[in-house]
Amino acid sequence: MSTTNSNNGTNNHAGDRDLGLWFLEQSRLRSARGRTDMDEDDDAPTELNTINSSGGFLVVSPDKLSAKYTSVNLHGHDVGVVQANKPAPVKRLVYYFEIYVKDAGTKGQIAIGFTSESFKMRRQPGWEANSCGYHGDDGLLYRGHGRGEAFGPTYTSGDIVGGGINYDSQEFFFTKNGAVVGTLPKDMKDMKGPLFPTIAVHSQNEEVHVNFGQQPFAFDLKEFEAQERMKQQMSIEKFSLPTNVSHGIVRSYLLHYGYEDTLNSFDMASKSTVPPVHIAQENGFDEQDIVFALNERKTLRQLIRNGEIDSALGKLREWYPQIVQDDKSATCFLLHCQKFIELVRVGALEEAVKYGRMELAKFFGLPMFEDLVQHCVSLLAYERPRESSVGYLLEESQREVVADTVNAMILSTNPNLKDSSHSCLHSYLERLLRQLTACCLERRLLSGDQGEVFHLQRVLKQL
Amino acid sequence: MDVDPRHFNQVAINDNDINSIVLSYLVHNCYKETVESFVASTGTKQPADCIEDMEKRKRIFQCAVEGNAQKAIELTEELAPELLEKNKDLHFDLLSLHFVELVCAKKCTEALEFAQNKLGPFGKVDKYVTKLEDFMALLAYNEPEKSPMFHLLSLDYRQQVADSLNQAILGHSNLPDYSALERLIQQTTVVRQYMSEDNVKNGNPPFSLKDFIRS
Fold first, then answer.
1. Residue B180 and residue A438: Cβ atoms within 8 Å?
2. Containing domain of residue A277, as a range?
3. Tens digits of per-residue pLDDT, B26-70?
4. Reported pTM
5. 3-state secondary structure of A154
């Protein structure tokens, strides 16, 4: 929680500044945050690369989606090789492409595979280091040297052969006419760096068409991806949880945010279930810090959610004066802004202006507060503020921010507080989710930043 | 990997997602009044249709856990007709609960008759044969609690069957058959364990959900 920017106000309320400012920062981020793309993806290959292909030995069609061998196959260094124009994208579960063997020519020495950027373009993929290739004439898989391993069937004219990278299992896989023929572990040590889908032809009249996804594949890629995701899910499902962990997490969520009525319903219902749910002390849930002032927090949350800011301020002055003592604190700031917003909401614009002059003006020019103040004030400029770029301020979510701030501040006044800012900010549930997100990000990083990006939404939707 | 949760503070979590997660737990476990209160207090949108069924599901669940399998079956037929037909495994498990109830009540003749009429037909299919044998074996003991199959009489077993039944009913109404919360906790633990594998090799203790919660 960085508070390095601000040096406003006195130093006495260090705790206050930390917590209040955290929520303020979240509010700023919320307005700045656009919808990030669900699938941030790097570019995928779309056609063959005519610039670096072994030009003397093959010719690429004008649409850059097929290649034909033009030389005479004399030795092992006159292979007609061509790569895709871009490397295989990594920020996804699987990458896949296919070739259609139009003509296997005299010797059927076609190959499909992946090669690194610096590949020697006169050799079959797989014959050199940092490459792999599935060859049609012998059905062998070549991986870095001239001796191939038994892998799959041979293939020839009329066959559709595909090559793919499964980032989750870290494997290459190849298909023939819609069925997987084999897989190969993708060693992190060799084949590092961007890998280019590669095709090769090596005897007279060989001709191959390539499909980078512009046409439907013979292989059911969607089904394959679905199955891979299922596998992941199943390995997770098998994991058994300690009893009542979920119950404890829900309960502490309700406690943390002061949903007293809901909590009471929950507790009552839990007592009457069969078997009755034991309160989860044995699971390590420490509720001490969050039981504090449950009723008061509930009351304040309700007031703020209803937009009754004056009443909320009144109650705070009565019950927790220390929180609203410093009028320049982030907490007071958020409350004043919300009051201003509520006045705009009901159309009391003159009053809003007066209030703004009285309470908000002092925040202009202070780095942490400036953005929000400006946004609030600019609400006045619109006839229909809800539809403006600052319309987000009029949403429920903005009231929630204020309610959450006040909630956290009250929790922080607990004289028996064990761990200062930590337990006040987040419930267990959120900590768990943050941990999950962070872990998934870290895990991706460890696999060379490959594989699907973790999105909580995607997980929720899958359920 | 560092356990310090403070490092995760920068990760943003959407409030709506959190509320959906809590709600999914409450719906899954039939906390009807709690759902209503939660929706009112937080303004979360309540998924349609789930309320009335919750009461019924809850009753069915309770019947199953108490071992009152016949009632559970009856109510299930009412709420989700054909569900048990499509779900033979589940049907068998429920019938076997009733059988166990009869055995425990020492109504051995009745139990035998019931087994022959209702459970026997399942024996035509291989996978039920072993299960059937286990259950029938209970009859051989004066005190079935002391038999090697005593777990079939346990609360845990009944709870397992009740859970499966609950999931089946949810699935039948096109609701997810497990709560998002459970799945997320599982996922977190699995991923965390995966991450700490290296740490464990260096002699650190493996990830423990309990410890994380305490931290």
1. no
2. 249-425
3. 888 888 889 889 988 888 877 666 677 888 888 899 898 888 888
4. 0.74
5. coil
